[in-house]
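Course assignment 3, question 2. Fill in each field.
Student: A.L.
Task: Predict the tertiary structure for the chain below.
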Amino acid sequence: MTDTLKFSCPCHFGLESVLSFEIKKIGGQNVVADNGKVTFTGDYNLLARANISLSTAERVLIELSSFTATSFEELFQGVKKIPLENFIGKADAFPVKGYALNSTLHSVPDCQAIIKKAVVERLKGIYNMNWFEETGPVHQIQFSIMKDVATIYLDTSGVGLHKRGYRRNSNLAPIKETLAAGIIDLARIRSDSIVYDPFCGSGTFIIEAAFKALNIAPCLNRRFAAEKWDCINPAIWKEERNKAIENVNRDAEFHGYGFDIDNDAINLCIDNSNKAGIKSRAHFNQADISQFNPPKESIIICNPPYGERMLEIKEAERIYSSMGKVMNNPCYIISPHEDFETFFGRKANKRRKLYNGMIKCQLFMYYK
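Answer field:
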């Protein structure tokens, strides 16, 4: 099947415009940003390219169908109409998961069962089989039912795209790679940028900034669920990986510098940057925020500590005050603290609402 497909990429709330730009850049057509996702159209080459190259997408889904479903019969018939045989073979596994919000059909287990039954009935008719062992490659079916509109997807990524493969270990409060990449984009990191992170944790900001500056596809070295699907020629994945390798800008002058008060975090950063293949561009040292002294031409990007208990919050506020005394460069700081600017000592030029997991944050942008 080589027809144009419709794709949907979930992303962090607040990064829809960043992801839209990324998708257009790799050749996506009919790009539409919505709350927490971006849809677009393309072929199997674009499917592979999106999985390998997009830095802010959580996963790449094929959107199979969308229809009104206020009864189980409507849900069943809507799913049964989908030409799933274009993707799912006789031996393939097709588990079902999803969610329902503000809809007549609100029981997720019941919806799962109905969708599974509809898929089985469709494939029984196509393949002349009464039983499916599902021992082959996984074709994860996902559904969302929102305000009585059911949308059915196939997940092509498998493990979420934030799993680049370099961060096999992390500290206790890591920032997700996809969110870090979005902040890197908003900070307009270029091939010759110098990036400093005084709270480098597991090195995510420095590594993602290096990927951006050197034009390294973030998921170049990992695998995806759809690579095992018979409906996609393996040559497509090889072709797109080769293109991504050719596109790496080895002449970039980027360097990143990370600091942390915890020596274990520094060792972790060094290990992760090595796994990411950017060790020569990343430099990590143990240091307290009071010793922070970045050169004027550098850009600071960080996720400073914040606390949940009163003593931790007071300590975090003390750190914010220290930051304000030593940071006079362009800064991009993500924090959930509503009064961050007060402790930092000056108003941000711009604020952007972002979510770090379930935590509502602000990206405080200082660029003047």
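Instructor remarks: Residues 108-127 form the longest helix (20 residues). The mean pLDDT is 95.
Grade: pending
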